[in-house]
Specification:
By secondary structure, the chain is an alpha/beta fold. It contains 8 helices and 8 strands. It has a 4-stranded parallel sheet. It has a two-stranded antiparallel sheet with strand order 3-6. It has a two-stranded antiparallel sheet with strand order 7-8. Helix 3 packs across helix 7 and helix 7 packs across helix 8. The protein is globular, with a radius of gyration of 18 Å.
Length: 238
């Protein structure tokens, strides 16, 4: 509230407590600092998606429960499942049969959407991302390209894993933007209740590894700061 007054902007509000995403961990110093700033876009696209209105992003929501039903009964012939995250995130965890747009930053997604919109106009499109922000903008943008049947997962992979944990259809780990690097289904579900601090996730065998080493193709899903592409500087699995 003090920040809103100082910045002369409306006080931040949320529709319900369920809009928050909770995590518990025994690790320390996951974030090096805290910054609060005003930006045109939460996820930068160079301003390309800045014109999308809030009411557009709320169209086509699927709750985790509704999404789960879609995943169990998906028709591959008339439905396209799109992962709105970057390819490094897709590499270590995704829903089965999801399309990877092969982006390294989200500002590359609009171009991908324009190129593929003609093939998607007669399809039912389901979209997801980490926490629900990118797929809100991405789905609204796809509708602007003439694709009418577009829905997206409210709260993203995080909310889905909170709800279903390892009993859901998501495979692998969810890439996260803090010191953990990734969160398993079990970690995410228990973290919601604050129980993860009492659990040794490393000892769990319930998590399927979907990533592969770039060189030997062995199952592997851990990114390290010193293993990056020499061209784009994105982390790679080695």
């Amino acid at each position: 509230q003090e920040f809103a007054q100082a910045a002369q902007v409306p006080v931040l509000t949320m529709d319900s407590p369920s809009d928050f995403k909770w995590s518990s961990t025994c690790e320390k110093d996951l974030f090096p600092d805290l910054n609060i700033k005003l930006v045109r876009e939460i996820i930068g696209t160079g301003g390309e998606l800045a014109s999308i209105r809030l009411e557009e992003t709320a169209q086509g929501y699927l709750t985790p429960q509704e999404w789960h039903e879609e995943m169990l009964h998906i028709n591959k012939e008339d439905t396209v499942l799109i992962d709105c995250r970057n390819t490094k995130e897709y590499a270590i965890g995704h829903f089965p049969n999801a399309v990877d747009p092969h982006t390294t930053t989200f500002n590359q997604f609009p171009q991908w959407a324009r190129q593929h919109a003609p093939q998607l106009k007669e399809k039912k499109v389901l979209m997801y991302c980490t926490g629900g922000i990118r797929c809100e903008k991405a789905s609204a943008y796809l509708r602007r390209q003439g694709v009418s049947q577009v829905q997206h997962l409210k709260g993203g992979v995080h909310k889905y894993l909170e709800t279903f944990g390892s009993e859901g259809t998501f495979k692998g780990k969810n890439f996260v933007f803090d010191g953990r690097g990734a969160a398993s289904a079990q970690e995410t579900q228990l973290g919601k209740e604050g129980d993860f601090v009492n659990m040794d996730v490393e000892s769990s065998n319930d998590d399927e590894i979907v990533g592969n080493c770039l060189y030997c193709s062995a199952s592997y899903d851990t990114f390290h700061p010193h293993c990056v592409c020499t061209v784009c500087r994105e982390p790679i699995l080695v």
